[in-house]
């Protein structure tokens, strides 16, 4: 829960780090994927940070009802600055327990925050509760069992045009994230213990050319599933 007390300067610095070409490319790719799947209705971004994904979603489809949730009040304030003039519901809170109504959202998403959640299975079950039946959540998460050599090659090319300061900080931050994120089989094991068991898919994808990402699709069926296991595929 250390992020709950994140100071304002740290939120600003994080936003500054996101304003580099590779991350902006990544955000646009995720937004396009979501906009193609969710044409209307309410979409919640968990761990929205400075709201960059919500801003891109609004640019692609101004009719979407946008919601953002973040544990840090400083991040919510930064998101409000970035989304000024846009109709969006931004709240401070944890996905472990929310005050959203059951079956409220047409889609839920998150980018790179799952590995930071306390009690991740309980958090996923809360996503199940607030998601409409026959709708899906789309989580984009880094995984630890990636090809290290391939990753280093792509990362070097990715950061080649980034200024030296942000290049160094970005490398350090990403290295830390990859050390503590989950392996693919660990994601599956967590999801098997949730109400999405039997109704999820794990797809290895490239974002900004980096081979370290999983797209996790969680689909809510009419009844809470009792089966186990999802599917894992690789999609370039």
Low-confidence stretches: 225-229, 232-236
Radius of gyration: 17 Å
Determine the mean pLDDT: 92
> Numbering strands along the chain, what is their spatial order in the largest sheet?
3-2-1-4-5-7-6-8
Count the domains.
1
Cα(first) to Cα(last) distance is 34 Å
CATH superfamily: Vaccinia Virus protein VP39
**Most strands sheet:** 8 strands, mixed
Describe this structure in words.
This protein is α/β, with parallel strands linked by helices and 236 residues long. The protein has a single domain, classed as Vaccinia Virus protein VP39 (Rossmann fold). An 8-stranded mixed sheet has the order 3-2-1-4-5-7-6-8, with helices on both faces. The longest helix has 17 residues. 34% of the residues are buried. The C terminus is likely disordered.
Brief overview, please?
This protein is an alpha/beta fold and 236 residues long. Helix content is 40%, strand content 24%.
SSE arrangement:
Blueprint: H1 8-18, H2 21-37, E1 42-46, H3 52-60, E2 65-70, H4 73-82, E3 88-92, E4 105-111, H5 120-130, E5 131-142, H6 148-158, H7 164-180, H8 184-192, E6 200-207, E7 210-219, E8 231-234
Parallel strand pairs: 1-2, 1-4, 2-3, 4-5, 6-8
Antiparallel strand pairs: 5-7, 6-7
Helix pairs in contact: 1-4, 2-3
């Amino acid at each position: 829960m250390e992020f709950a007390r994140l100071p304002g300067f740290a939120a600003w610095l994080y936003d500054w780090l996101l304003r580099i070409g590779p991350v902006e490319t990544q955000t646009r790719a995720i937004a396009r994927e979501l906009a193609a799947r969710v044409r209307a209705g309410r979409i919640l971004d968990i761990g929205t940070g400075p709201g960059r994904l919500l801003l891109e979603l609004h640019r692609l489809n101004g009719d979407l009802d946008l919601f953002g949730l973040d544990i840090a009040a400083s991040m919510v304030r930064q998101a409000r600055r970035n989304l000024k003039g846009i109709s969006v519901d931004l709240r401070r809170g944890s996905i472990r327990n929310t005050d959203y109504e059951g079956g409220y959202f047409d889609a839920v998403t998150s980018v790179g925050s799952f590995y930071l959640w306390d009690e991740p299975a309980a958090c996923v079950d809360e996503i199940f509760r607030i998601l409409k039946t026959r709708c899906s959540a789309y989580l984009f998460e880094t995984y630890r069992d990636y090809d290290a050599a391939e990753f280093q090659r792509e990362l070097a090319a990715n950061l080649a045009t980034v200024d030296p300061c942000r290049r160094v900080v970005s490398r350090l931050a990403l290295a830390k994230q990859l050390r503590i994120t989950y392996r693919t089989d660990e994601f599956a094991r967590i999801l098997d213990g949730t109400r999405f068991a039997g109704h999820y898919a794990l797809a290895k994808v490239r974002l900004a050319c980096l081979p370290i990402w999983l797209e996790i699709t969680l689909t809510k069926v009419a009844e809470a599933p009792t089966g186990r296991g999802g599917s894992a595929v690789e999609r370039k």
